Amino acid sequence: MKEWLEFNWNIERYLALLQMITGWIIFGYLIFHVIYVYELSKGLEINDSFLMPLLAIFGIILTFHIVNGIRILLIETGFLIPKNHQENTWLNYKPHKVYKIILMILLLISAIVSFVVIYK
Question: What residue intervals traverse the membrane (predicted)?
Fold first, then answer.
């Protein structure tokens, strides 16, 4: 636990932390969603114009969580690391770098699509 308080983190530590944070945000959204739908089923009228920016942000968070989860799955199954990764640092391995670039491109596309769909 002491290592989490050090400030010389690599990108993997930040991505793992963001994975946990976005997981809790998604869990909170699910609770909010159930309460919101319950209130709507009771006939309560809710002005949801303030929710539109939050839905766009949630789309980006959800995309990050899914794509980063796939990245973690590919690392755990050995697809993004070389077989001799004990000798080399696997963070600089070419497929891993390419996947991080793909992750950033998907997040940018997700942000654009989220805002276009919500604000059209």
Answer: 14-38, 50-74, 98-119
